[in-house]
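Our collaborator T.R. sent over the components below with a one-line note: 'Predict the complex.' Nothing else. No constraints on interfaces, no templates requested, no preferences about which chain binds where. So this is a plain run: every listed entity goes in together, and whatever single assembly comes back becomes the starting point for the next discussion.
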Amino acid sequence: MTKLAVVGLGPGGAHDMTVRAIDALEACDLIVGYTTYIELIADQFADKEMLSTPMRKEVDRCHLALQEAAKGRKVAMVCSGDPGIYGMAGLLFELVSEYPGVEIEVIPGVSASNGGAAVLGAPLMHDWCSISLSDLLTPWEKIEARLRAAAEADFSISIYNPSSRKRADYLKRACDILLETKDPETVCGYVRNIGRDGEEARVLTLVELRDTPVDMFTCVFIGNSQTVLIDGHMVTPRGYLQREDSE
Amino acid sequence: MTKLAVVGLGPGGAHDMTVRAIDALEACDLIVGYTTYIELIADQFADKEMLSTPMRKEVDRCHLALQEAAKGRKVAMVCSGDPGIYGMAGLLFELVSEYPGVEIEVIPGVSASNGGAAVLGAPLMHDWCSISLSDLLTPWEKIEARLRAAAEADFSISIYNPSSRKRADYLKRACDILLETKDPETVCGYVRNIGRDGEEARVLTLVELRDTPVDMFTCVFIGNSQTVLIDGHMVTPRGYLQREDSE
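Returned assembly:
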């Protein structure tokens, strides 16, 4: 069997990669990925052959990697964050049966939710949901139902793909759904370019977030009913101190 | 200002740590953590002073780390997985105001959800929730409401703390709630000791999971309505192939 490694680069630069991810990239013959991610690692792995493909060519990119692996080459496909969170791991498993002799190995990474949360403070310390606002692959009605369920059950929420050129008002629409049940003063935050040049973070209320434009390189965090602002940091208590008070 | 770094070790052994986590531990004077995690890194950082505290002493452990940082020492507190996911990051932010001159830096890690998902395949490729079944800090009614909301809105679910000695039947109770709305044949899985000696993984149906005992070192994964079993792997499609079919 030839292993095709699908490798999480973490949210930011080289220092957010795990030892296992670095080892996998050093051991491979060919690195395949979306152009932006290939550029991020080009210097660090300058001696490797690299193949990059543009956005929205996910199926082609996976076939390309699988074809090269089927020839017996050691291939690594790179994804930003974690390949199992809105990445390429699932699609590779869906396609690999067409390539006998190839096996997928998922090398997990620090996801944008974890990386962005660390920049803001600790917004995801209690139960939380991850929701993408992209309706390219998911009906908007399903996204709305998930936002509503997450708000009603008081989850903290990490929002991926909050906006794009064609969907400039999606975050506003999402906030309006959350505002049906959540306090307008709910503590929220966002991080743009997590761990990369030009990283920007801001903490604000849900009603302020509603009217704040963000771009597709931004991860948005919605607090639960307990989330507080502590010296500029967004923090969702787990309840340790609250337990002590009641004992 | 003295920085206290709260560092995610990732789910398993040393190879799941990020470069940034290793750098932080190498740069510090003192490493503080729960006994089990200190033991995991004792050999790798053998020249460091280490302080370990038992489980359920979270508040004491954080005060200890903050007190040492307030003396001007470079302290790193270690957590399994990601410190911002059911870890110590939030509690440190809640306590740090008592220690003027100390600042918290969160160094994210690969969480158990990401690490366990990678072992099983790609179960969290679409929108998903993280829910802990521990009712030490959270009323059981709130946990039930979150399970019900997650099932109704068709999230994949990662379940932490599925069991303990005092709560042997909690996973069964959780499955019963999920079975109110979910198909009994829903693809599920679990991973025990992710990335460590004795790692065990199994894929099974929701109705089988209901009657399967698991321990507190296990992370459980519940599929959404689209999750499938592909050659032994648990995979939740994002929808790339389904989009192509419809184009």
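Summary for T.R.: The mean pLDDT of chain B is 94.
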